[in-house]
Write a structure and sequence with these properties.
The structure is a single chain. This protein is α/β, with parallel strands linked by helices. 35% of the residues lie in helices and 21% in strands. It has an 8-stranded mixed beta sheet with strand order 7-8-9-3-10-11-13-12, sandwiched between helices. α8 links the parallel β8 and β9. α4 packs across α5 and α5 packs across α7. The chain binds adenosine-5'-triphosphate and magnesium ion (MG). The site of magnesium ion (MG) has 4 residues, from α1.
């Protein structure tokens, strides 16, 4: 598999991914045609408001969308090392999940197996994916639990998830995820439930894994501080779509989409002296059962034009990977208008 990998090929490529859930109320279009790539040793941060499809995207990559409610729509593509993940059989999926691609779930309590000692949950993975015998796997499990900051790991390895506090459970889940030295690590809000010092340790741990094994990381977070510290690339999601993506500095210093502007204005910046007001983004995201015809952000956008209400914006390019879906960048919009908007934003 390694040999097939072209040096410039991304380890993970998602193309036109669409995921729906069929519910009594109708078809929830959770993910509506997103594309992105992640290279080895690179951190892609996915940001966006609650309900925009971040976790569903993560679950799709882990082959965890289950029918009959969940459906990955036709023409969606997910490539791992150039292999078509959506065509994997059950055996390949088992090898892929846990061994090649691991996920730290948003909700530690429901993702751990409550009937199994935490050590065994790690040992099981080590035996299956790293060909270890049980004794060596137990020693390794203790080492890993120690490395994620679980005190008394030799005793803790034989305890059940309910015997751990919330923060400790989150660490256990991280231990399970990193145990098999995955090539891709998806971390879905890995530190939201943790206090700041532990948060820093966990992020350090993810960084170490990345540096040591060249792991590609997809980091899902609400926290722009974390994004600023960790990410190489950023994808901004809104209502099931990626409305802007690019290198970290492009998104922070030269954002193009009004939603990205609003998101960035809703977090405090260094150098603010307490005078500036944090902006809240007025309104709510659209209903994903019946998403609007034009731009999904139009109803909340300060710069909404007629076309935004009727036609889905094209994706415009601003650099190698910097792209935004917004009609403001159509050839028909005069340069002066963009300048005016720039000026207005500069003056807050
Ligand atoms: N099992 C499911 N059945 C029905 N709808 C679902 C299911 N899972 C997710 N959804 C819907 O898909 C949309 C995207 O959900 P998702 O969990 O990906 O959001 P998110 O971006 O991770 O939000 P958060 O930041 O709150 O975690 C939401 O509208 C959600 O209600
Ligand atoms: Mg989520």
């Amino acid at each position: 598999m390694e040999k097939l990998l072209n040096k410039n090929e991304s380890i993970l490529a998602v193309k036109n991914l669409r995921v729906s859930y069929h519910t009594y109320a109708g078809e929830v279009q959770s993910v509506r045609g997103i594309s992105f790539e992640v290279d080895r040793g690179e951190v892609l941060a996915i940001v966006g408001e609650s309900g925009c499809g971040k976790s569903v995207t993560a679950r799709a990559i882990m082959a965890l969308i289950q029918g009959p409610q969940g459906e990955i729509k036709k023409d969606s593509e997910i490539f791992y090392n150039g292999e078509d993940v959506l065509a994997y059989d059950k055996k390949k999926i088992r090898e892929f999940r846990g061994g090649e691609c691991a996920m730290i779930f948003q909700d530690a309590l429901t993702s751990l197996n409550p009937t199994m000692k935490v050590g065994n949950q790690i040992i099981e993975n080590l035996v299956a994916h790293r060909n270890m015998d049980k004794k060596a796997a137990k020693e390794e499990a203790i080492r890993i639990l120690e490395s994620v900051g679980i005190p008394n790991a030799e005793k803790r390895v034989d305890q059940y998830p309910h015997e751990f506090s919330g923060g400790m459970r989150q660490r256990v889940m991280i231990a399970i995820a990193v145990a098999c030295n995955p090539k891709i690590l998806i971390a879905d809000e890995p530190t939201t439930a943790l206090d700041v010092t532990i948060q820093a340790q966990i992020l350090e741990l993810i960084n170490e894994l990345k540096d040591k094994l060249n792991t590609a990381v997809i980091l899902i977070t609400h926290d722009f501080g974390v994004v600023a510290g960790m990410a190489d690339k950023i994808a901004v999601m809104y209502a099931g779509q990626i409305i802007e993506k690019g290198e970290k500095r492009e998104i922070f210093y030269n954002p193009k989409h009004p939603y990205t502007w609003a998101l960035l204005n809703s977090v405090p910046k260094l150098g603010w002296k307490g005078k500036q007001l944090l902006e809240t983004i007025k309104g709510t995201p659209p209903d994903l059962i019946a998403p609007p015809e034009g731009c999904a952000f139009a109803a909340r956008c300060k710069y909404c034009m007629n076309i935004c209400l009727t036609e889905e914006p094209k994706e415009y390019s601003f650099g190698d990977i910097h792209k935004a879906k917004c009609w403001l960048y159509s050839e028909e919009i005069p340069e002066e208008i963009l300048e005016e908007i720039k000026e207005e934003r500069r003056n807050g």
